[in-house]
Amino acid sequence: MVNGDGAHDHTEEAESKQDRDGEADGGEESNEQEVIVIQDTGFTVKIQAPGTEPFDLQVSPQEMVQEIHQVLMDREDTCHRTCFSLQLDGNVLDNFAELKSIEGLQEGSLLKVVEEPYTVREARIHVRHIRDLLKSLDPSDAYNGVDCNSLSFLSIFTDGDLGGAKATDSGKRKKKGNELEQIDCTPPEHILPGSKERPLVPLQPQNKDWKPMQCLKVLTMSGWNPPPGNRKMHGDLMYLYIVTVEERHVSVTASTRGFYLNQSTTYTFNPKPANPSFLSHSLVELLSQISPLPLRHPFERIATPFQVYSWTAPQVDHAMDCVRAEDAYTSRLGYEEHIPGQTRDWNEELQTTRELPRKNLPERLLRERAIFKVHSDFAAAATRGAMAVIDGNVMAINPGEETRMQMFIWNNIFFSLGFDVRDHYRELGGDAAAHAAPTNDLNGVRAYGAVDVEGLYTLGTVVVDYRGYRVTAQSIIPGILEREQEQSVIYGSIDFGKTVVSHSKYLELLDKTSRPLKVQRHNVLNEKNETVELCSSVECKGIIGNDGRHYILDLLRTFPPDLNFLPVEGEELPPESQRCGFPLQHRHRLACLRQELIEAFVEHRYLLFMKMAALQLMQQKANKDCNKTDAPAITDASAESSADTTQAAPSDPPAGKELEESIPGLAQAKELAETLVAEDGSDPKSREVVLNACKAVGSISNTSFDIRFNPDIFSPGVRFPDDSAEDVQKQKQLLKDTAAFLVSCQIPSLVKDCLDHSALPMDGATLTEALHQRGINIRYLGTVLEFVDKTPAKAQLEHFYRIGISELITRCAKHIFKTYLQGVELSALSAAVSHFLNCFLSSFPDAVAHLPPDELVSRRKSRKRRNRVPGGGDNTAWASLTPSELWKNIASEAQSYYHFTIQCESADQVVEKYGLQKITLLREISVKTGIQILIKEYNFDSRHKPAFTEEDILNIFPVVKHVNPKASDAFHFFQSGQAKVQQGFLKEGCELINEALNLFNNVYGAMHVEICACLRLLARLNYIMGDHPEALSNQQKAVLMSERVLGIEHPNTIQEYMHLALYCFANGQLSTALKLLYRARYLMLVVCGEDHPEMALLDSNIGLVLHGVMEYDLSLRFLENALSINSKYHGPRSLKVALSHHLVARVYESKAEFRSALQHEKEGYTIYKNQMGEAHEKTKESSEYLKYLTQQAVALQRTMNEIYKNGSNASIMPLKFTAPSMASVLEQLNIINGIIFIPLR
């Protein structure tokens, strides 16, 4: 990426400069320089593989030769090679050498791909690789949620690749007739506006290429292995047995020189080559002699970094596959394929990658890439292990204890179950607290990991919910298992604060995290009433491992408690909280505030601090002006600083304008604070200013703004020394203020953002994200919904309210489902899940469970053995659940957990009362609990038979939470790029974002959510700058990636489909654009139904494209629907509504129905006139268009009169019926999608 050493000093410089300037321009400039340096240093080599044309490859000096190997194995034309070396002028390159260390390698060098002789190991690798290529054509891995495969359906709608293909010249309309007749524009009935049908099957359209293992039925090791001695001497390595789709049975020899067919059959061994003999170095070339091989877009088959599970799947035939079968049994023992004969030491790998150097960009990239890779491997291994534990395939390390208390070790990972073992959490809420602790701990690990202090280590942590159990998987501190916990802990407390110890090294390390995490150093008392200093919560434990590293664990109270959900005797909450009915009782006492809330609160207080200081300084200045004589005390510095502030704020009221100016870039405000602080207190007046402001905002320091929280306040069992009483009082007040801030600021701001559509949640996941971004925990969902209910503009929040209710209901159902599943044994799993779904969603009033047939239930099993497996409950209590009982439980869960009242006795009532859709509820509950169901049409509303049978439940997946390591440098480039684009510097923005894309690829590999965002922005820039084919290609990648990484019906995927449709239309691919828009509309109907503001945009897009292909009646159905949704959500006076009226008017004009056209355009004109005034160009345009429509209407009327008067011999003037030009349709499309072409700066 960056050439050897010359660049480093430069990068360093640029960065330190950036840090100093904060967000000021200097940072931007240095960034640009950095980009140039980086881009200058890559170079291009030519690669020549046997039987293909040489091609160019962009490489960077930091890369290893190994990475070129990887590129070749991913490329279409060389992907079937695994056993080769790269040679430069006849010299073999070392796989692990960096390119810059290779002599003679430079711009334009030719690297030859040379086939190497096979060994048994290479032959096995080759067979495995070929089988993976074949499997990429077969979706069964994606359905089964293994090997990081996931689904993608884009290619079905685009008929293969989009790259610049089929760009028809429809702009000129040369082939006016036939060009349009070929497009079938009518969507299926269920996609039309107003349709009540919500089918499930179209979610996964059938791909004609997807016949499993398309060219082979079987590829497996032959029974003739291993080769006998005399054949070994001839170079035979192993034998394969293959059955092709055409039912040809063949036997293949893998020899040192390659693969060939031999004459063996199932029962006779004949190793001689078959006639005609054909030796091929690649199995694919050999197979293509027998049966041809298709391939897919690389993005459809590259593995994703973390597994994505699909909640629906078709019935797939199970095919024979030796490699899969072999893997299933060997890797279960915890042997990982890459390291023969040993398990991976996860802790060592996780910590070593953290220790890699990070002084300059290339080092940081290497480090971040290593961290990310190990994390994604660890998450996959931990998930597999957790499932093995719950399925009962792992022996416990304390097998004598009862099931709930067992702990497990598998593959060097430690697993514990989320139950309250040994009454550890008794005072904090028992099992409920034990269930919440792992996610809190994970949030702590995430926070400390992000601060990334050298020398402080956290454990690899993954939380897995599977079959009703919560499993925490952690990497193991070296030596911890041999020692008692009491001896190991040298910092913190193992009994929630009764005994506490501290350690100077830990204080030093944790002190570095104190400012970014806003944790205050504080003193507590231990059992001997001695004062102990801590810089974290008491239960955060410090342990030095046998490797000498300082580990911290149990970070569940990294963030301060949430007083709204923690009633404390004798403590009053601020009135804002009390008005909303707080404090409320929560299930456990571990309710913490989110990091996002802490950040927002501190930011809010900072503005307040600046405001106070500025006000006081101005008063001082005012006083000084009144009586110049008696103020000699003010030194020059402070006069300067007060002058500075007053220049910024000459207005009345004094602080208003100052504050306004300081919000965008808090630059002036910071300057002011810094001048005050820099005075080292030599001037009493300015010191007093700061002191007052600090007091007012609750800063822990009296000389500067600094807010931190003591996480131990209100922890039961923690005692504070008397001398810190005042401090503790301050901290309590701060916590109360923060709790009030959440209710009085954050929730209203969320609702305001939804009203002005800057937040647009579409389903449960995006709603959760919107809450979390503002620091609102999900336990506030009931409060948020009540707030929406009381909002005057409630009608414009209907979509939000509906999504909120459905989220609340499905979360309650999930809580109930969790305990319900714990009592189900494995053989009854699908029966139990289908019974639960029937009770939850089916209108059938008396759902009856099907118990597994008697002959399968062995009567002889001893009762005692049965309790051994965590998931081995032996009761059939689950079978007695009834729909009315389940809905009663849901209502009481909503009341007790979310403090929200749902009036409902059945699914049908709820659907009726809140306008929900059963298919949406099914998707939400399946995604939340990991259920996978058969994709078919379910009849939820039949009152005579249940909707689900046990055959409909295909699988149950784990729901996994883990840390997502970030690519920090790439992200900074991405942000600067966005900033440039917003300032209108598109070219520079584009370069920065391209660079970000390179860096993201470097750290994350090819697939990642952030790369998806990068590609989307790039495509948009390409489009704005007029490069339509490039926009198309980038957006195609963005869609594929979103499908693969987020899921095929994730709201983000829906948006990506809409963008792609626009670029297809601009490229003249009209029918593809329509197919994509219809797909987006179908997905949106399933995910949130028709009544959603985003649907208006989608329908305007569809209507415009249909107008362009002259399908006027169909176009009107969509545009009129968009108009009614816009009027509902934006209010009848909004400019969006005016635009909607105009679009409808244009279609009526094309149909020559001028009266309707006039009516709509008048509506639009009135809105423009009232909102923008007579002189505005929009108002003028509209009035011109009205004149034109009136003339057309008059002309039409004349002609009609002429016909009435003179009958058939009337002389009719030909009327101009205009089909809209593509350019005018595209112009309107750009307007509604918010794309503005600005002159390039």
TrEMBL record:
Belongs to the CLU family. The gene is cluha. This is Clustered mitochondria protein homolog. It is found in: Cytoplasm; Cytoplasmic granule. PANTHER family: CLUSTERED MITOCHONDRIA PROTEIN HOMOLOG, EUKARYOTIC TRANSLATION INITIATION FACTOR 3 SUBUNIT EIF-3. Keywords: Cytoplasm, RNA-binding. Pfam families: CLU, CLU_N, eIF3_p135, TPR_12. GO terms for molecular function: mRNA binding. It comes from Salarias fasciatus (Jewelled blenny). Residues 1-33, 636-660 are annotated as: Disordered. One of its GO terms (cellular component) is cytoplasm. One of its GO terms (biological process) is intracellular distribution of mitochondria. The lineage of its organism: Eukaryota, Metazoa, Chordata, Craniata, Vertebrata.
